[in-house]
């Protein structure tokens, strides 16, 4: 007896006898497909259960922007180190050592440059951490990225606005892309 094409969703399933209303188990232990027509489409963004979810484009863009911010931090860090070397060289100038005002200014300037170097290293480490966490996910990583972006926006606005315009724009975009609903779904997805 022929059962027809086994791939035809409208045809009679193999393993079923005519007249019986209940499905039988196939030899592999999987019940045959119920109903007619094509199988149900997967949910948007999630795919089939257990299938890996693809990183949304906004999160990919945020990851690239975080790497750009890290690169800009490296450049800024190099400029700060060069500035520190220049201040140290001016401190050693014998004609300026006699001026007490210059000594006070260089002490304050040196301390300020050291503080800026520490701040630049912290933001560099934060940008690298954030870029790495974009691939791993986790709701804590998302919150950390939102906080990092917010702090970058604040520090880009106040003391060095014209110089930090690129940082400001990139931090705003990272904040928006991570906070969007597809970014939230990416960071809240179950990880294997």
Automatic annotation (TrEMBL):
Sequence segments annotated as region (Disordered): 1-33
Transmembrane segment boundaries: 64-88, 108-131, 143-161, 167-187
Assigned keywords, A-Z: Membrane, Transmembrane, Transmembrane helix
Record carries keyword Membrane: yes
The protein, known as: Integral membrane protein
Organism: Streptomyces roseicoloratus
Lineage: Bacteria, Bacillati, Actinomycetota, Actinomycetes, Kitasatosporales
């Amino acid at each position: 007896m022929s059962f027809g094409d086994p791939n035809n969703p409208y045809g009679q399933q193999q393993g079923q006898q005519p007249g019986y209303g209940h499905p039988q188990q196939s030899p592999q232990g999987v019940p045959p497909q119920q109903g007619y027509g094509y199988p149900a489409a997967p949910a948007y963004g999630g795919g089939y259960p257990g299938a890996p979810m693809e990183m949304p484009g906004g999160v990919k863009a945020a990851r690239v922007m975080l790497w750009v911010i890290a690169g800009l931090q490296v450049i800024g860090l190099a400029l700060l180190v060069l500035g520190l070397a220049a201040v140290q060289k001016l401190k050693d100038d014998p004609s300026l050592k006699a001026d007490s005002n210059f000594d006070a200014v260089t002490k304050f300037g040196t301390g300020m440059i050291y503080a800026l170097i520490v701040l630049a290293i912290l933001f560099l480490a934060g940008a690298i951490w954030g870029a790495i966490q974009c691939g791993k996910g986790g709701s804590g990583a998302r919150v950390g990225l939102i906080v990092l972006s917010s702090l970058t926006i604040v520090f880009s606005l106040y003391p060095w606005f014209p110089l930090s315009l690129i940082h400001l724009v990139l931090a705003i975009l990272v904040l928006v892309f991570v906070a969007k609903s597809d970014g939230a779904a990416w960071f809240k997805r179950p990880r294997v």
